[in-house]
């Protein structure tokens, strides 16, 4: 196979979203009540081991927030998105 052929492959099309902006925001919204936090953010022993591998309380908190958000939504928390105060207080 000629390696130059791959340079002329068609570019992938951008993905279309099946959700509206409002639906996406609702789906990715963080829980508000303590009961919802308990249900979504209880870590396994493996999760706790991963969190504890990081230095400093702030780093551990950041990893825990990312991991909890990942478990809850299936995506990582975007760099410009700040976790709500309820999540950090929990």
Quick summary:
This protein is mainly α and 90 residues long.
Describe the structure.
This protein is mostly helical and 90 residues long. It has a domain at 32-90. Helix content is 50%, strand content 0%. It is built from five helices and no strands. Helix 3 (45-52) packs antiparallel against helix 4 (57-73). The longest helix has 17 residues, at 57-73. The N and C termini lie far apart (56 Å). The mean pLDDT is 77.
Derived from helix and strand composition plus strand pairing, the structural class reads: mainly alpha
Order of helices and strands: HHHHH
Shape descriptor: globular
Binned, the helix content reads 40-55%
* Helix segment tally: 5
Strand content: under 5%
Largest β-sheet summary: none
Round the mean pLDDT to the nearest integer and report it.
77
Q: Report the strand count.
A: 0
Distance from first to last alpha carbon: 56 Å
Low confidence ranges = none
Rg over CA atoms: 19 Å
Please supply descriptive tags for the structure shown above:
90 residues, mainly alpha, globular, DUF4158, DUF4158 domain-containing protein
